[in-house]
Amino acid sequence: MYRFVKYSIWSAIALACLCLGGCDSSSKKPLILPPELSTNEFVLRDKPHIIGEASISFLPVEGTQKEVLSKHQDERNKLLPDTSTYKNFHPGYSALLNGQDIVATYYETPSITTAMGTFYKGYVEVSQEEKVLYTIQTGDSTPASSLRGLWTYDNHWVLEVVHAAEKKGLFQSETDFDLVGDVILDGISLNQQQKYQETFGFQLMNGKPFFFFKRLGHIGISYNGKEIPLEYTQLPHYLCCSGAAFNPKIAENMVSFFAQRNETWYYVEIGIFE
């Protein structure tokens, strides 16, 4: 069973947040971090913005963007492939569990047919050989896949899906979606088990489970079963098209992302740095 240990950010024995530049007073609350995990948080002067098609420009309070990005450039360049951006590219994932392949596959079924066409609902199925281990409904079909990944570690399997609910704008052509991430461990939704509003951005960092969670409107991280409350109020993710440049960038042993704490924006790098 996955065991969570909740850390108090007010602990007198906590480690200070490791800021390489310009942390404001709200980011200096002490955090208990596992000894191998580092978090580097940089205060920005304003919200980062997209330049060109997929690049982001940001202005740190201290130093320059080039200086900030240079420190862990090599680690950040070890990006993992993102095959879930468009569902037609990769409808399924596979991993090895107890010597046998385990497979997650995204499916769609017709939901309703109107004069505008046929609308679909999605679901994800996890199977091993001929046995179905788990099925979860993911809601309305979207341009991006609701299946975000499948992983195995220490005889556990982990699935990340996105629940999508379509919302219409003023005109019929204006369609948007409410997207909620859900990390599933061995068939149990961590959203439900831990009373999270959302879980997203799962990865294995140094072979240990890492993901973001949102509870009571605030976003933190979980690493190897331990909650670390970073108290962000916004962290862009699951964005598509040009906005995808704001999504967290997952590498072998780190993740970089943009986040907001109240009115202040940050560029953050969390990982196992040698």
Break the fold down into its secondary structure elements and pairings.
Layout lengths: L4 E2 L11 E4 L16 E6 L5 E3 L3 E3 L7 H6 L2 H4 L15 E6 L2 E15 L2 E12 L2 E10 L6 E7 L2 E13 L6 E11 L2 E2 H4 L4 E8 L2 E8 L2 E6 L2 E7 L16 E2 L3 E8 L2 E8 L3
Parallel strand pairs: 1-17, 2-3
Antiparallel strand pairs: 3-20, 4-5, 6-7, 7-8, 8-9, 10-11, 11-12, 12-13, 14-15, 15-16, 16-17, 18-19, 19-20
Which percent range describes the beta-strand content? over 45%
Structural class: mainly beta
Q: How many alpha or pi helices?
A: 3
Low-pLDDT residue spans: 3-27, 83-90
Radius of gyration from the alpha-carbon trace, in angstroms: 19 Å
Q: How many structural domains in the coordinates?
A: 2
* Strand order in space, largest sheet: 1-17-16-15-14
Helical content (DSSP H or I, runs of 4+): under 10%
Whole-number mean pLDDT: 84
Task: Walk me through what this model shows.
- The protein contains three helices and 20 strands.
- With 274 residues, it is mainly beta.
- The protein folds into two domains: 1-79 and 204-274, no CATH class; 81-193.
- A five-stranded mixed sheet has the order 1-17-16-15-14, with no helix packed on it. A five-stranded mixed sheet has the order 2-3-20-19-18, with no helix packed on it.
Give me a quick take on this structure.
By secondary structure, the protein is mainly beta. It has helices at 65-70, 73-76, 190-193; strands at 5-6, 18-21, 38-43, 49-51, 55-57, 92-97, 100-114, 117-128, 131-140, 147-153, 156-168, 175-185, 188-189, 198-205, 208-215, 218-223, 226-232, 249-250, 254-261, 264-271. The longest helix has 6 residues, at 65-70.
